[in-house]
Design goal:
Elements (H helix, E strand, L loop, with lengths): L1 H9 L9 H33 L2 H27 L14 H29 L8 H28 L2 H26 L7 H29 L5 H11 L7 E9 L5 E10 L4 H19 L1 E10 L4 H14 L5 E10 L5 E9 L9 H15 L3 E9 L3
Parallel strand pairs: 2-3, 5-6
Antiparallel strand pairs: 1-2, 4-5
Helix pairs in contact: 2-3, 2-5, 3-4, 3-6, 3-7, 4-7, 5-6, 6-7, 8-9, 10-11
Length: about 400
């Protein structure tokens, strides 16, 4: 495949896609190819549009020019986001890639708004479009360029899991649709004097604005703190619980500092009677090995839990029976019994179901559970933290 030829020809150690330099090279090559093809298409379509006086063709031309600018900003984004961490940015500059994509999105929307105005003016004051065979064939061929570019960007984006390149692939595929509409309107000009060119120009312009809006949404989400990838979440929890004496996990939080740059923290439940030195060695090993394997920075917090047997198990089962009344509670964790004699503290966290909202405040929910426990054991005091999922 020609895509593989480009990769092998211009990217050294191209199979090591987790390496920052290799990933950066993929982004740069993808951007350069996008610039070259889109500039060629812009020149072709702008020339044709001016020759035949077609607002739809000129709108499509400037759409390609905005795509070229998008590719340029993508390259800059990859370059700048690969800068090493410094005192002001201890987790690096990876989010610059999102900011560069956001700039591109607003540029795309601006182009679309300008051509909405131009197309409306052409509807009000129609200008005849002259059909010519050679320009028609050039426009037809340009569609195949966009199909190829869409597949190329998808190939490169999947190789390095780049949202920017995948977005460029989708954008190029959308351009195939708009260019096809332009070609149809140009062909229709041969058979009718109706200003179909202006209406198609309006459709193309609206599509450009819509594409820009989708790009804005897709790039703002990670900046606002969208939920982490399920695959990464599952990998972290499964790997942590694979280590000896780690009985369970909770409170996994993942911070995204750019593509391939994540920091994660998780609470690991361990038996309360194990040696602190022994578990510290296990946790250190887990942090080191998982961070390296998943290319993240992982911090593991230790939560000692009581062995669930005897009196502790009885209290634990009572808590479970009480929280069943509240369908918005997902689970409990960090359960332990503290104290001597009859007076004891039951300390635990309750977790709210991610898809549901508690109809009462956290304090009111904690009191209801505590009152339920008092009915069984008046001498038990509950220390309850209402928690939620972060993944």
């Amino acid at each position: 495949m020609f895509f593989n030829f480009i990769v092998h020809r211009f990217i050294k150690d191209n199979s090591n896609v987790k390496d920052d330099k290799v990933r950066n090279a993929y982004g740069v090559i993808g951007g350069i190819v996008g610039i070259l093809l889109n500039v060629i298409l812009f020149i072709i379509k702008l020339s044709v549009g001016m020759i035949v006086s077609s607002i739809a063709i000129m709108a499509d031309a400037f759409n390609n020019l905005s795509d070229a600018a998008s590719s340029l900003i993508t390259i800059l984004g990859f370059k700048l986001s690969n800068k090493p961490a410094d005192r002001e940015h201890p987790f690096g500059h990876g989010r610059i890639e999102y900011l560069s994509a956001l700039i591109v999105a607003f540029m795309v929307m601006l182009v679309g708004i300008q051509f909405i105005k131009s197309s409306f003016e052409r509807i009000v004051n129609p200008t005849p479009v002259t059909f010519e065979l050679v320009p028609f064939l050039l426009l037809f061929v340009s569609i195949f360029f966009k199909v190829w570019l869409s597949r190329f960007n998808k190939f490169m984006g999947e190789k390095i899991n780049s949202a920017a390149l995948k977005a460029s692939s989708t954008d190029a595929l959308g351009d195939v649709f708009t260019s096809t509409c332009v070609v149809i309107s140009f062909l229709a000009a041969k058979f009718t004097t109706f200003p179909i060119d202006a209406y198609i120009g309006m459709i193309v312009a609206l599509f450009i604005v819509y594409s820009g809006f989708n790009l804005v949404r897709d790039t703002i989400n990670p900046l606002l703190g969208e939920a982490p990838d399920d695959e990464l979440v599952n990998s972290i929890t499964e790997m942590v619980t694979s280590y000896d004496n780690i009985l369970g996990t909770h409170d996994l939080i993942i911070h995204n500092y750019g593509p391939g740059k994540c920091m994660a923290s998780i609470h690991a439940e361990i038996p309360s009677d194990i040696s602190v030195v022994a578990i510290h060695e296990i946790i250190d090993k887990a942090e080191r090995e998982i961070s390296k394997a998943l290319r993240i920075y992982l911090v593991i917090h230790i939560d000692p839990i009581c062995v669930i047997e005897g009196e502790v198990k009885s209290a634990y089962d009572e808590i479970l029976s009480i929280i069943k009344k509240y369908d918005y509670i997902d689970s409990i964790h960090d359960f332990r019994v503290v104290g001597e004699g009859e007076v004891k503290n039951l300390i635990f966290d309750v977790v709210i179901e991610p898809s549901k909202v508690s109809p009462i405040s956290d304090d009111e929910l904690a009191k209801l559970i505590s009152d339920g426990v008092k009915k069984y054991h008046p001498s038990y005091n509950c220390v309850i933290t209402v928690d939620k999922h972060y993944t």
